[in-house]
Write a structure and sequence with these properties.
Blueprint (H helix, E strand, L loop, with lengths): L10 H24 L8 H14 L47 H12 L4 H5 L6 H9 L2 H7 L4 E4 L15 E5 L2 E12 L6 E7 L9 E7 L5 E6 L10 E12 L3 E2 L11 H35 L15 H28 L5 H25 L1 H5 L5 H8 L9 H13 L8
Parallel strand pairs: 1-4
Antiparallel strand pairs: 2-3, 3-7, 4-5, 5-8, 6-7
Helix pairs in contact: 1-3, 3-7, 3-8, 5-7, 7-8, 7-9, 8-9, 9-11, 9-12
Length: 425
């Protein structure tokens, strides 16, 4: 069983991350929101601290690069195909050898929750903690993990004409001797300009559909991958979002992640394990931002004499207090779902459905809470004197990237009834 208390061994990690959020991120949050695309130099020191924590074992893989997946997990594609050997039923889920444990996935989620109480965009901009690092941790072999371990990796999946259907990507990868040649376009690449590596999804054979999709680690300096533009965004402006064009981009064969063979059965599983790895992390970002909104709003309302009495029913308290009670309940539900998904990953238990549950609940809760907090605080919430208006803008992306709200609900529904998209026709 999962223990609902914070593991004691992670207490130093949480304390350190909370200190970063309050002492480093929040003071510069507005600065880099206004200075979009300017690299936050203060993060170099933060990165050094995280590296020290990880190297010493205190952080046990703090940040995205530390998270990993069990080899026998089940992945779920965006259109509902089950793509690994373990069945979808709860009775089939594997159990950790040697008893339950809390490892790198849990530590990564806990640290991200805390840093996102400070700033989501800055968290996404910490060197060597990118979503591409989590992708590498999910499917790379031991040699690749050692080779890429200390480098910053972004992840490039989305294309102009594919939207949420990752299985329909058009970027091609053609084998040429000891190299693959990549051609295509990628958009909405988080930290794409700043990262040292980009994990690019491409297909070995368009006619075979999703089974032929593989992920490749491409050097950011590769002349075949050209930066087209940086996006101007509603929120998370401290984080750069890039678009790339791949034109005869040559990549060594050893930089293909996972199995190089096309597997008609389950061939998409290696790539899709990435989402089981990263969705709990994004849910953790949403939880951290939700906590920041609730804490600030509670403090602002308290200065006006509005407080929550936790021992009395919501119906006998002010409308503002009652709304805070409801939002706290939603926050706690999202938090527990996220910790459960991370715990399952640490224990070698298939978590595709739970990862999507956590992402769906946390993303939607974050948006709802952020907007409600702006409303409850009136003019103060809408003004730039507080970070609430910024957090409201930042929140929306957490309901979109790494799979939209609608995609998460589709994954959950299909897993619950045990049918693929093809079987639902």
């Amino acid at each position: 069983m999962i223990d609902l208390e914070l593991p004691k061994k992670f207490a130093p990690l949480v304390t350190q991350a909370r200190g970063m959020a309050e002492e480093v991120f929040r003071p510069i949050s507005r600065k880099y929101d206004l200075a979009e695309h300017e690299y936050p130099r203060e993060l170099d020191l933060v990165s050094a601290v995280i590296d020290g924590m990880s190297d010493s074992g205190v952080g046990e893989g703090a940040g995205a690069r530390g998270s990993t997946r069990a080899k026998d997990d089940v992945a779920e594609t965006t259109d509902g195909e089950k793509v690994a050997a373990v069945g979808s039923g709860r009775s089939d889920r594997s159990k950790a050898k040697g008893g339950p444990r809390n490892g790198a996935n849990m530590s990564s989620v806990l640290s991200i929750i805390e840093t996102c109480r400070g700033d989501v965009g800055l968290t996404l901009s910490i060197p060597r903690q990118g979503l591409g690092n989590a992708a590498i941790a999910a499917v790379a072999n031991d040699e690749q993990k050692a080779r890429y371990g200390n480098r910053w990796a972004a992840m490039a999946i989305t294309e102009p004409d594919t939207g949420s259907d990752s299985g329909a990507i058009r970027t091609t990868a053609v084998k040429d001797g000891e190299e693959y040649v990549l051609n295509g376009e990628k958009i909405f690449v988080t930290a794409g300009e700043r990262a040292e590596l980009v994990v690019v999804w491409a297909t070995l054979d368009r006619s075979l559909g999703k089974q032929a999709i593989k992920s490749f680690v491409v050097e950011r300096s590769n002349p075949g991958m050209k930066l087209v533009r940086l996006e101007h965004k509603l929120g998370i402006r401290a984080s750069d979002t890039a678009a790339f064009s791949l034109q005869d981009c040559r990549v060594p064969a050893q930089d293909l992640l996972g199995d190089p063979e096309i597997r008609i059965e389950g061939g998409f599983g290696g790539a899709m394990q990435t989402f089981d790895n990263t969705r709990p992390l994004v849910a953790g970002m949403a939880i951290g931002l939700t906590r920041a909104c609730l804490d600030t709003t509670t403090e602002l309302l308290a200065t006006e004499g509005v407080t929550v009495d936790w021992d009395r029913p919501a119906t006998v308290q002010s409308a503002a207090a009652a709304r805070l009670l409801q939002m706290e309940a939603d926050y706690e539900a999202a938090r527990l779902l996220t910790l459960r998904a991370a715990w399952m990953a640490d224990n070698g238990t298939p978590n595709s459905m739970e990862a999507s549950m956590a992402k769906a609940k946390a993303g939607r809760t974050c948006v709802n809470v952020a907007l409600a907090c702006v409303e409850l605080c009136g003019a103060t919430g809408y003004a730039e004197t507080e970070l609430l208006e910024k957090w409201a803008r930042d929140s929306k992306i957490l309901d979109i990237f790494e799979g939209t709200q609608q995609i998460q609900l589709l994954v959950v529904a299909r897993r619950l009834i045990g049918l693929t998209s093809g079987e639902l026709k």
